[in-house]
Design brief:
Strand order of the largest sheet: 4-1-5-6-13-12-11-8-9
Strand content: 15-25%
Helix content: 25-40%
Number of helices: 6
Mean pLDDT: 94
CATH architecture: 3-Layer(aba) Sandwich
Shape: globular
Pfam families: Peptidase_C26 (PF07722)
InterPro entries: Class_I_gatase-like, Peptidase_C26, PuuD-like
Radius of gyration: 17 Å
GO molecular function: gamma-glutamyl-gamma-aminobutyrate hydrolase activity
CATH superfamily: Class I glutamine amidotransferase (GATase) domain
GO biological process, one term: polyamine catabolic process
GO cellular component, one term: cytosol
Number of domains: 1
CATH class: Alpha Beta
CATH topology: Rossmann fold
Length: 248
């Protein structure tokens, strides 16, 4: 049985030791998680896309993965950029937003990770908390560590618990309603985009999971990084397994 082709929205990186020219890439941990689940990941090179072009591009794939990464341009959700915002790439944002709208039209199974959940929320008219360190969670302030001390540098991640709403696509995919997750972010979901519903939160109340409620849609976003602990936590790998299962 052939492996279903899984589109992974790629990034552009500067030339260096690996290549004399810029490179288009996807993170190895995402690719490995897809491979373990039985999919064949292919990296999509960022470019300017019309909606029609995005639909045509994704029509040959069984599912879509949106990776974590730098911050979404606040202009896209009607706000001015605040000091903690980093790594903004407006063209990358527009590329991924085009993919989101195309995937929804095609009802293409989609897993959106960390930045990915934020990008989906913005694409559907939602807004973001630009820096969760500026938010007063009351008695729960500081209870949850959402990023390691050296964020955004380094490869380490924080660990914290999330509670998942029972009988949701996310809980069924994970096989649990409570999970210990790898976290590496300083922004969060604020106003929820059209068609999305909150299906997971951390102990401080921050949104950790969204899914699309439309008929025939399997679009799940998680604020954490399931691929980072997928080799040791079966529930995290199960999320990628569920994505690939949707292609069959």
């Amino acid at each position: 049985m052939s492996r279903p082709l899984i589109a992974v929205a790629g990034r552009i990186a500067a030339a260096g030791r690996v290549s004399r020219s810029e490179i288009s890439f996807a993170g190895r941990v995402y690719l490995d998680a897809v491979l373990r689940a039985g999919g064949e990941p292919l990296t999509l090179t960022p470019r300017e896309l019309t909606h029609e072009q995005a639909v045509e591009l994704l029509s040959g794939f069984g599912a879509l993965v949106l990776m974590g990464g730098a911050d979404v341009d606040p202009q896209l959700y009607g706000q001015q950029r605040q000091p903690h915002v980093y790594g903004v790439n407006h063209e990358q944002d527009l590329f991924e937003i085009a993919l989101v709208h195309a995937a929804i039209e095609l009802k293409l199974p989609t897993l959106a990770v960390c930045r990915g959940i934020q990008l989906v929320n913005v694409a559907l008219g939602g807004t973001l908390i630009q820096h969760i360190g500026d938010i007063d969670f009351g008695d729960l302030t500081g209870v949850v560590e959402h990023a390691p001390g050296k964020f955004p540098a380094g490869q380490d991640f924080a660990l914290h618990d999330v509670e998942v709403t029972p009988r949701t696509k996310l809980s069924k995919a994970l096989g649990t309603t409570s999970a210990r997750v790898a976290s590496f972010h300083h922004q969060g979901i604020d106003q929820v985009g059209k068609g999305l519903k909150v299906v997971a939160r951390s102990l401080d109340g921050l949104v950790e999971g969204l899914e699309h409620g439309g008929a025939g849609q399997w679009l799940i976003g998680v604020q954490w990084h399931p691929e980072d602990t997928a080799t040791s936590d079966l529930h995290q790998q199960a999320l990628y397994n569920a994505l690939i299962a949707q292609t069959q």
